[in-house]
Design a protein that fits this description.
The protein has about 325 residues and is an alpha/beta fold. The protein contains 12 helices and 13 strands. It is globular.
């Protein structure tokens, strides 16, 4: 641990992105404090080599977590409520996200935090954004509206084992030989491997020139969701057919995906509604400030499969996966 480096508060440390960012920060010598719901449970889940200080609290409950900012220099804001466990909880997620962000900014200013780094979503507000993507944009606006210099990274679908976009993709392609999809299956997108997201998050922490700015982040491939599904099928050596129909609405699609996958229903709906929006990087300035080897979607899918421990698509190694290409 390097005492000369900024001290970091990591929110969302138990999540898909935060759980992967934590080992990166620790291995690079950062002193990390993690804001979690259960400090004892979190501490018990950490491998011995990951040294981090757990602090218990809930951003939606003022008075339970503000002390976690004491002595910290930089915070990663990676909390995101999505839509809950079922369809009935969907409508309240945007309100929860904005309330949590407002609480956090106020406390960060009071604590004298120097920087916030936030991971949001791609998409333009003028493009009839889904509620999910519009909420991500609004959270970013809230965090950048105060005195703390906030860096915003905006990503499309993040592909990695355990992430909702990948798990939806995995179960659908594995289980359905002929996939009936709405027209949005041909919407352009620029997905990004989880390893590249971690590269950029950690890189922004170490690159002071990123403070207070917003960046689009994406992988090297601009493809459609149809192409992404066929990439998965090709990596797995599966023959799959994707058929589009004009009458399948996002809500009907979400109900169907809910039947076919273990992804929580309340998470599926916001993701599916967002698929109708084009999510492609408008600029690539981040590549100059934080150089990283961009991972192709074939490699991202293969790596995610190699990391998967249970369920369809299990593979013993990345190397065995690439033999199928």
């Amino acid at each position: 641990m390097d005492e000369h480096k900024p001290r970091v508060l990591l929110t969302g440390a138990t999540g898909f992105v935060g759980g992967r960012l934590l080992p990166n920060l620790v291995s690079n010598g950062f002193q990390v404090r993690c804001l979690v719901r259960s400090a004892s449970g979190f501490a018990g889940s950490l491998p011995p080599e990951i040294k981090a200080e757990p602090v218990e609290g809930d951003l939606l409950k003022p008075g339970t977590w503000e002390a976690s900012l004491d002595g910290m220099d930089v915070a990663f804001y990676l909390v995101h409520s999505m839509g809950g466990r079922n369809f009935s909880e969907i409508k309240s997620f945007a309100e929860r996200d904005q309330k949590a962000a407002t609480h956090f900014l106020k406390a960060a200013e009071a604590a004298g935090l120097s920087r916030i780094i936030y991971l949001g979503g791609l998409g333009e507000l003028g493009d009839s954004l889904s509620e999910h993507l519009a909420s991500r944009q609004e959270v970013g606006r809230i965090l950048q509206s105060g005195k703390v210099r906030t860096t915003i990274l905006r990503a499309a679908n993040i592909i990695g084992a355990g992430g909702a976009p990948f798990e939806m993709l995995r179960y659908m392609v594995e289980r359905v030989p002929v996939m009936i999809c709405p027209r949005w299956v041909d919407t352009p997108c620029q997905p990004i491997a989880i390893s590249n997201v971690v590269d950029y998050l950690a890189g922004c922490l170490q690159q002071e020139d990123t403070a207070g700015l917003s960046f689009d982040i994406g992988g090297p491939d601009i493809i459609s969701y149809r192409e992404l599904m066929l990439i998965y099928a090709r990596v797995r050596g599966l023959r799959r057919l994707v058929v589009t129909v004009p009458v399948l609405t996002p809500r009907l699609s979400a109900y169907w995906i809910n039947l076919m996958t273990p992804v929580p229903a309340g998470v599926i709906m916001p993701l599916v509604e967002g698929l109708r929006n084009t999510v492609v990087c408008r600029e690539n300035r981040i590549r100059d400030l934080v150089p990283a080897r961009l991972v192709s979607m074939e490699e991202a899918v293969c790596t995610a499969l190699a990391e998967t421990e249970k369920g369809p698509g299990r593979l013993p190694s990345t190397q065995s996966c690439f033999r199928r290409l």
